[in-house]
Design brief:
The complex is a heterodimer of chains A (166) and B (407).
Chain A: E1 3-10, H1 17-20, H2 45-48, E2 54-56, H3 69-76, E3 81-84, H4 89-97, E4 102-104, E5 116-120, E6 125-128, E7 134-136, H5 142-150, H6 153-164
Parallel strand pairs in A: 1-2, 2-3, 3-4
Antiparallel strand pairs in A: 1-5, 5-6, 6-7
Chain B: H1 3-12, E1 22-26, E2 29-33, H2 38-47, E3 58-62, H3 71-86, E4 91-94, H4 99-105, E5 114-117, E6 131-134, H5 137-146, E7 148-152, E8 156-162, H6 171-182, E9 191-195, H7 197-200, H8 204-212, E10 221-223, E11 248-253, E12 260-262, E13 270-272, E14 283-286, H9 294-304, E15 313-315, H10 320-328, H11 331-337, E16 341-342, E17 363-366, E18 382-386, H12 388-397
Parallel strand pairs in B: 2-3, 2-5, 3-4, 5-6, 8-9, 8-11, 9-10, 14-15, 14-17, 15-16, 17-18
Antiparallel strand pairs in B: 1-7, 12-13, 12-18
The chains are: A alpha/beta (166), B alpha/beta (407).
Bound molecules: iron/sulfur cluster (SF4).
């Protein structure tokens, strides 16, 4: 999980959870979620994205409804991390809780769809391989990093509970 | 410390906290509904041993898929009911109204407490002076088992509304004015606290509009200092935050504002209704947690009494109690006589699940929370967000209409 490499799929500012996973699919079983990833903005995304690719947004990525299916859909579609200038906070927590890195960098305007990116959670930077430019990772410390390293909130909580019970 | 910091410090069992601190806090109330609740939570709960830390602190409301429109909806409701029965959940509300409104109406959300809910509009409960935070279903499941949550203490942004509210404005216009001028991401990871003369004179219903819309500003929580600043049992002072402790203070003079509308596709595409006056409409909708309260129905009745709508107006009361109260005072009578269609309480068409979706290209003025494309139905449908006054005025004329034209 510490060093990831894949292609970027660039979306704009204020991508909402309705864009990532439209409400009309909410009644479907969660294990089908990947088929509808990003269907609100690009219905072909789910069939074109490759495992290990990244979704890149601008500001306020994941705004709106708290639906966790938005994160599950991206994970199932193979997305390895989401990179943005800022995240809506519930989307951010859902991502970390499901073991999907939600990476904040100061600027995403230099990234184009198709660019290969390297996301290094140890040296804390995102490198755009086409241009060689390196963007510092501004978040993922403390508890959120610990949850991510544990593989998500469920394994993290299991470990906490087992420490608690003698 | 700010109001939000004081409440979080208490919940974390610490004497002080500072913005940016990560704390483990004890949860006073954990809330969920039929969409985010058992169907998503049960499997996680199972993995974590299945025991709920304190069933008396858990609220479950069936509000999203009721009344069910498909057999899939029925399945979800049946599963939710069975789960609630099996767990003998004391605070289970079956199709009695929208979760967020029930928390206020039944006095379940208490001043000075920490409320965590599997829904983005959980922040609504901040209207009573609680810290109320929305999370996802997995996270709520872990809260149900441990009674705890980790939170980063947010800096507070203070929004002051100066002056008294004129009769043609509502809390929704004020919230839209904030979104229009500060934009939809200004409060990401922040607490938004509302104060000022206009807020102090608001009913709980109206305060709840401000806190409900905090999430559309990106906020972690919205909060209004309660009128009673020393709640017995709160354990902390619930006085308003001192401006110098806040990260920013934004002041709005209510008398300078006009009735507002948020044009699709975004909640912050806000302009005075007058700028879009005359835009032809297909439908009008009054409903949702933010716009289906008794106060909203009464505002609409004020406009519609003795008149007739020109386009279909659908009204979805937020709760059964709203229905009862609005039956008792003649509000429903006035709405129905004006031609409105009144539906069963719940989320209704707000999330585009059932009870009146919008078709391709249909244009609707609505009191709902959001206007994202596809939110209320087809992606090409257009949702203009407005107060109940503006929706009622527009239903009368069939065009976007400043309520001052008809009041
Ligand atoms: S009324 Fe709409 S915004 Fe409110 S809880 Fe229901 S679906 Fe969500």
């Amino acid at each position: 999980m510490e060093v990831l490499e894949g292609a970027a799929w660039v979306f704009g500012d204020h991508v909402t959870t309705d864009d990532i996973f439209p409400g009309r699919y909410l009644e479907r079983p969660l294990d089908e979620a990947g088929r509808y990833a990003m269907a609100g903005v690009d219905e072909t995304f789910a069939s074109r994205v490759r495992p290990g690719d990244f979704v890149v947004g601008g500001v306020n990525f994941g705004a709106g409804s708290s639906r966790e299916a938005a994160v599950v859909a991206l994970k199932q579609a193979g997305v390895a991390a989401v990179i943005a200038r800022s995240f809506a906070r519930i989307f951010f927590r859902n991502a970390i809780n499901n073991g999907l890195p939600a990476v904040i960098v100061p600027d995403t305007t230099g990234i184009r769809t198709g660019d290969r990116l390297r996301v290094d959670l140890t040296s804390r930077q995102v490198t755009v391989l086409r241009t060689g430019s390196a963007l510092p990772i501004l978040n993922l410390t403390g508890i959120s990093l610990a949850i991510l390293r544990a593989g998500g909130l469920i394994p993290f909580t299991e470990a906490r509970l087992s420490r608690r019970t003698p | 410390m700010t109001l939000t910091e004081r409440i979080l410090a208490r919940a974390a069992g610490q004497s002080t906290v500072r913005p940016g601190d990560e704390v483990w806090a004890r949860v006073d109330l954990a809330v969920m509904h039929d969409s985010s609740g058992p169907r998503r939570i049960a499997p996680v709960l199972q993995r974590l041993g299945g025991r709920i830390w304190d069933p008396n602190r858990v609220v479950l409301a069936i509000d999203h898929f009721t009344p069910p429109a498909t057999l899939t909806h029925v399945e979800i409701l049946t599963m939710t009911r069975a789960w609630a029965r099996e767990r003998q959940l004391p605070l289970f509300f079956d199709s009695e109204g929208i979760l967020h409104n029930l928390l206020l109406e039944r006095g379940l959300a208490r001043p000075g407490t920490l409320v965590v809910g599997a829904d983005s509009h959980t922040c609504t409960a901040g209207a009573v002076g609680a810290v109320a935070v929305g999370v996802g279903a997995t996270e709520l499941a872990t809260v149900l088992v441990t009674g705890e949550i980790w939170l980063r203490v947010p800096p507070t942004v203070l929004i002051r509304f100066e002056g008294t509210i004129p009769p043609y404005l509502t809390a929704r216009d004020l919230a839209m004015a904030v979104l229009g001028s500060l934009k939809a991401d200004f409060a990401i990871y922040r607490a938004v606290e509302y104060t000022g003369e206009a807020v102090e004179s608001m009913s709980l219903d109206e305060r709840a509009v401000l806190t409900n819309q905090a999430v559309e500003m990106g906020a972690k929580n919205g909060i209004v200092p309660p009128p009673e600043q020393q709640w017995p049992g709160a354990g902390v002072s619930l006085a308003p935050s001192a401006p110098e402790e806040c990260e920013a203070v934004h002041t709005f003079h209510v008398r300078e504002l006009a009735p507002m509308v948020a044009a699709p596709p975004r909640v912050d595409e806000v302009r005075p209704v007058a700028h879009l006056q005359g835009l032809p409409l297909d439908r009008a909708y009054i409903g949702s947690c933010v716009g289906g309260k008794a106060e909203d129905l009464r505002l609409a009745a004020r406009v519609l009494r003795g008149r007739r709508v020109r386009i279909p107006l659908t009204v979805t009361p937020a709760t059964q109690e709203v229905v009862r109260a609005c039956l008792a005072d003649g509000t429903l009578q006035a709405l129905v006589e004006a031609g409105a269609i009144v539906q069963a309480p719940g989320c209704g068409a707000c999330a585009g699940l059932h009870s009146g979706l919008l078709g391709p290209g249909e244009r609707c003025v609505a009191t709902v929370t959001r206007n994202t494309p596809g939110r209320m139905g087809h992606r090409s449908a257009e949702v203009y967000l407005a107060s109940a006054l503006t929706v009622a005025a527009s239903a009368l004329t069939g065009q976007l209409t400043d309520p001052r034209e008809v009041l």
